[in-house]
Each structure stands twice: as C-alpha cells, then as structure tokens.
Specification:
alpha+beta, Carbonic Anhydrase II, two-stranded parallel sheet, 15 strands, CA_dom
C-alpha cells in the first residue's frame, strides 16, 4: 500500500512538473511573439519586418516609400485624379494604434483615379516624412488612405513643412493627447477641401503600404508642394507618436514615377 501511495505521489509530482514546464514554454513563446511584433526601433524595426512578419510582403520588389528624383520622372500633362472632398467630411474617431495617430472616416468623401472611385477610409501621420523629394526629408507626412469596392487602395501622400499655423491641423490636434491603444469618438465634420489638392502637382507610382503587411499594388500619389503647419503643431503630433515612425526609402527596381501637372 505504501509503495502504491509513493508511486502515485511521484507520478503526480512528475505530471504537475510537466504541466508547469509546458505552461512556462507556452508563456515564453507568447512573450517572444509579443516582443517581436513590428515597431520602428531595435530588433523589430523596419529592417527586420521581412523576417518577423512572415505572411507579409515586406520583402517584395515594389515597396514604399521611395526617394523621388525629379529629373528622372516621366512627365504627364493630363491628370488621372479628381479629388471630391467637401466641407462636411464626417470623422468617426481618432485612435493611437501604437504606430501613428489615425483618424477614421465614415463613407462619404472620395477620389476618382484612373476612372475608379476610391472612398476615404482614414488619415494618419509619419514624422519625419517617409517619402523624399530629391533627397529632402520633410518634418511630417500625412497619408490619406482610400479604398474602392474591389479592395484596391490609393494613398495620397501630403508632405508638411514648418511655417504658419494650420486651421486643419489645429482641428486634428484638438483631440490630442491620446494614450497608446486608446481612441476617442469624434463624430464631427471637417473641411478637407481646404487642402486644395486638386490644384497641386503630384508624382504617382505603384508601391505598397509602408507598414506591415506591406501589401503591394497600392496606387501612390505624392504631392510635390508641401502644406504649411506650425512648429508647435508638428511637435504636438510628434509627442503622440513613436519617435521616428517612418520606413526608409525602398529601391525602385525599375518602376516608373510619373509627374502630373
């Protein structure tokens, strides 16, 4: 009887030890996975996205952003872009997703590009700019992300430089600060037509999302003329985002960049 009890106790201890070891192994694996989620610094910075985001296109041949060299672009006189923003664009919410400040929109405003209609989904920011023009890095870049009914994406890249204050950016920043992982309901109108993008010259090319999963076949439109906002507005956005939340310029790999004027 004593022998059986001893054997039973030994078996129970061994089983408990195995379960604890399995749990620790699982917890360790989860922690490693969490630690290796993409970011903008250290071992999970953009240089490592391809290896840590296994199901992404971050190692693809047609990635974004790029350095646009004006003397190398192809010039086109006829524009394929019509921006249909109005003074009553409806913002749903703002979110700090840990990578940027993102404003989400209800279905409404749209652009027409190459005879397809794309609806504005969200706006977010990178500091400093991701795209360069002739090697110049701007203090900030705003991405206006649009999608059509087939899931195709067109992004407008608007560069910003410091100068006088911007009424539009004052509106955006009135909902800041916001903690990482948090969001705020807005449900207000904003006038994006004040950007006057229809009047601006732009570059266009085929690229990708600039964050994982780095999906390719994205239409990029990068405006040559930057918008103006104050240094204080740049600093306020910066203080609510990760430091240097940008991806370095990617190789063109034979892609053509068009200049529309």
């Amino acid at each position: 009887m004593n022998t059986r009890i001893i054997c039973y106790l030994c078996f129970s201890i061994m089983l408990f030890s195995c379960q604890e070891a399995a749990k620790k192994s699982k917890d360790l694996a989860l922690n490693i996975h969490e630690k290796r989620h993409w970011s903008y610094s250290g071992e999970t910075s953009p240089e490592h996205w391809e290896e840590i985001e296994k199901n992404s296109s971050c190692g693809g041949a047609f990635q974004s952003p790029i350095n646009i060299i004006h003397r190398d672009v192809d010039s086109l006189q006829q524009t394929n872009l019509k921006i249909q923003y109005n003074p009553t664009t409806f913002i749903n919410k703002v979110e700090n997703n840990g990578h940027s400040i993102q404003f989400d929109f209800e279905l409404g405003d749209s652009i027409n590009y190459k005879n397809k209609t794309y609806f504005l989904k969200q706006i977010h920011f990178h500091e400093p700019s991701e795209h360069k023009i002739n090697g110049i890095v701007y203090p900030i870049e705003m991405h206006l992300v649009h999608m059509n009914s087939d899931g195709e994406v067109t992004v407008l890249g608007v560069l910003g430089e410091e100068g006088e204050g911007s009424v539009l950016f004052e509106f955006f920043e009135s909902f800041l600060p916001i903690k990482e992982g948090a969001f705020k309901e807005i449900n207000q109108h904003v006038d994006l037509s004040s950007l006057m993008l229809n009047e601006k010259q732009y570059y266009s090319y085929q690229g990708s999302l600039t964050t994982p999963p780095c999906t390719e076949n994205v239409n990029w439109i990068v405006f040559k003329e930057p918008i103006i906002l104050s240094e204080a507005e740049v600093l306020k956005l910066r203080s609510n985002m990760p430091v240097n939340n940008y991806r370095n310029a990617q190789p063109l790999n034979g892609r053509r960049v068009n200049y529309n004027y």
